[in-house]
Write a structure and sequence with these properties.
207 residues; alpha+beta; six-stranded antiparallel sheet; 13 strands; 20% helix; 34% strand
């Protein structure tokens, strides 16, 4: 039997909202997801949404200092859902007791890059670097994408009271189409909580 060709993931765009605030938890993915759901409604199982981790300067007290002039909330969504997330503009988000205010958004198309990185990728059942890298390769193969895989720091995040282990992950040597496919599909799970969301190397992906 001839194997079927990989199914191309749906198109996505990044919607970027300026954020006014000072501090949020460094481990903020689950709390940020909850704050978004309180404004946008039930987001559990929403395959159209991925949330980039917030960028900032990590502090030794477990908090993240948001950049005062360029702090932003970046959501990756399918175009049909843009109207839904626009409701965030002008709202205040409570991220585990830390309040931030959301500005007016801008929409950006995804751009191909030869190298992409994600602050943390989570693949259930894979908590050691070598088996994890093999699991990443299997997901890339399923997408029809070829890349050199670099596994970075082991990271731990709290999600609904559980400790979840993942790794920083960088992909290099991507074709233009392969780069777009990875950005649209992501790698691994927990993408609504800041995991497995890829952007160009050098843009910054949180602390």
């Amino acid at each position: 039997m001839t194997p079927s060709a990989p199914t191309s993931p749906p198109d996505r765009v990044d919607i970027v909202f300026p954020l006014a605030g000072t501090l949020v938890p460094r481990d903020h993915g689950y709390a940020l997801f909850g704050a978004l759901a309180r404004v946008l409604g039930d987001l559990h199982g929403a395959p159209w949404l991925a949330v980039h981790p917030l960028g900032g300067i990590p502090r030794p007290d477990g908090l993240l200092a948001l950049h005062p002039r360029r702090g932003s909330l970046r959501l990756r969504v399918v175009p049909a859902e843009i109207p839904r997330v626009l409701a965030l503009a002008g709202k205040a988000l409570d991220i585990d007791g830390h309040r931030v205010h959301v500005g007016v958004s801008r929409v950006y198309p995804l751009r191909p890059a030869e190298a992409l990185t994600a602050r943390m990728v989570v693949i259930k059942g894979f908590q050691e670097p070598e088996p994890f890298a093999e699991a990443v390769k299997r997901q890339l193969d399923a997408l029809g994408v070829t890349a050199t895989i670099e596994i970075g720091r082991r990271r731990v995040v709290s999600i609904a009271g559980d400790k979840v282990i993942g790794f920083g992950t960088t992909l290099r040597g991507l074709s233009e189409e392969g780069s777009l496919v990875v950005q649209r599909a992501g790698i691994g799970g927990r993408q609504r909580m800041g995991c497995g969301v890829f952007g160009p190397v050098g843009r910054g992906a949180g602390a």
